[in-house]
Amino acid sequence: MYKKPISFQGLRLVIVDDDPDTIKLLGILFELEGAEVKTAKSVKQAIEIISSFPPDILISDICLPDEDGYSLLKKVRKLDAQKGRRTPAIALSAYVTDGDRKNAYLAGYQRYLHKPINLDLLAVAVADLAGISQCA
After folding, report:
1. Cα separations in angstroms, 59 against 2, 3, 68, 133
2. What angle do CA 49, 51, 56 make, to 5 degrees?
3. How many CA atoms lie within 13 A of 45 on its CB side?
4. What is the pLDDT of residue 2?
5. What pLDDT is attached to residue 28?
6. Rounded CA gap, 21 and 13, in Å?
7. Cα(69)–Cα(91) distance, rounded to whole angstroms?
8. What Rg value do the Cα atoms of the chain yield, rounded?
9. What's the rounded Cα separation, in Å, for the pair 136 and 78?
10. DSSP label at residue 5
11. CATH T-level assignment (fold) for domain 12-128
12. CA–CA distance from 70 to each of 58, 59, 75 (Å)?
């Protein structure tokens, strides 16, 4: 059975990862399906972007060069509180223990996906958090 790609038309995403290949791949994946994507390689850069481009979904690596993804989400939640919103967030990580997963959920991430990234699972997670129907 052929499954139609999920349309992310009009969805605003911020993707944070210090790996240029990951940023490029994820940006292309979501832009091809209609999302507006902004990317950052650090927490500082991500906060600058999110301040003027509030995303519908945040996708962030946990291990970043300046601060970690937990610190980023704490700062995003502070911005959210000022704007009366709550940005759904997906954690990406090379760390795959149950403790790492638990820490991500306790920090406030709604989804936790490990690297290497399964693009289908990521697309489904984004669609689910955005409330996008996946029907063919």
Report:
1. 27, 24, 13, 19
2. 80
3. 14
4. 45
5. 95
6. 17
7. 8
8. 14
9. 38
10. P
11. Rossmann fold (3.40.50)
12. 12, 12, 9
Q: Does the reported pTM lie above 0.90?
A: yes
Q: How far apart are CA 59 and CA 30, in angstroms?
A: 12
Q: What is the pLDDT along the chain (136 residues), one digit of tens a residue?
A: 445 678 999 999 999 999 999 999 999 999 999 999 999 999 999 999 999 999 999 999 999 999 999 999 999 999 999 999 999 999 999 988 888 999 999 999 999 999 999 999 999 999 999 999 765 4
Q: Which amino acid is at 118?
A: N
Query: What pLDDT, on a 0 to 100 scale, did the predictor assign at position 135?
Result: 57
Number of other CB atoms surrounding residue 27 within 10 Å: 16
| Residue 101 near residue 112 (C-beta atoms within 8 A) | yes
CA 46 to each of CA 1, 43, 53, 86, 126: distance values in angstroms, whole numbers, following the listed order: 39, 5, 10, 16, 18
- Measure the CA–CA gap between 24 and 117, rounded to whole angstroms: 13
106 three-class SS: helix
Number of residues that make up the chain: 136
> Hey, where are the domains in the chain?
12-128
